[in-house]
């Protein structure tokens, strides 16, 4: 047991003898250049924009213009036409075409019949 403790004790004593570590209640001493630890921020930089960039220009606002009401759309029925294809072509529902044209039977379109196509 003494063989294990003796080298450990001698090593500890030798370490305490190093300068700057202090021993037996002596205060630690540091060189004067290390007594103040002050963190300083780097100086802020404000680089100029690259010369290829130009300052933005103001975009002129559009002037309001009066929009005329849309003219009623119409479609003349051709051979093989179906309400679903006509409605899909104009982006409206089949029922809105039926209501706008008072069609009693959606399967009874006649060639040459003119349909009014609603806006909705």
Topology:
Layout: H1 2-16, E1 73-76, H2 83-90, H3 94-101, E2 114-117
Antiparallel strand pairs: 1-2
By DSSP (H or I, 4+ residues per run), the number of helices equals 3
Range of helix content: 25-40%
Radius of gyration based on Cα positions: 47 Å
The succession of helices and strands, N to C, reads HEHHE
CATH-assigned homologous superfamily of one domain: LysM domain
Order of neighbouring strands in the sheet with most strands: 1-2
The proportion of strand residues reads 5-15%
CATH topology of one domain: Membrane-bound Lytic Murein Transglycosylase D, Chain A
Q: How many distinct beta strands?
A: 2
Compute the average pLDDT.
78
Write down the overall geometry. elongated
Summarize the structure.
The protein is of the alpha+beta class.
Structure description:
The chain is of the alpha+beta class and 120 residues long. It has a domain at 73-117: Roll (Membrane-bound Lytic Murein Transglycosylase D, Chain A), CATH 3.10.350.10. Helix content is 26%, strand content 7%. It has helices spanning 2-16, 83-90, 94-101, and strands at residues 73-76, 114-117. The protein has a two-stranded antiparallel sheet with strand order 1-2. The chain is elongated. The model has no long low-confidence stretch (mean pLDDT 78).
């Amino acid at each position: 047991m003494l063989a294990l403790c003796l080298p450990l004790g001698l090593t500890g004593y030798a370490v305490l003898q190093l300068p700057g570590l202090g021993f037996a209640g002596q205060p630690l001493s540091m060189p004067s250049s290390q007594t103040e630890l002050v963190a300083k921020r780097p100086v802020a930089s404000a680089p100029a924009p690259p010369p290829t960039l130009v300052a933005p220009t103001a975009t002129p606002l559009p002037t309001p213009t009066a929009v005329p009401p849309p003219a009623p759309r119409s479609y003349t029925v051709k051979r093989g036409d179906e309400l679903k294809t006509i409605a899909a072509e104009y982006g409206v529902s089949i029922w809105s075409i039926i209501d706008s044209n008072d069609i009693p039977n959606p399967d009874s379109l006649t060639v040459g019949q003119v349909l009014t196509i609603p806006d909705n």
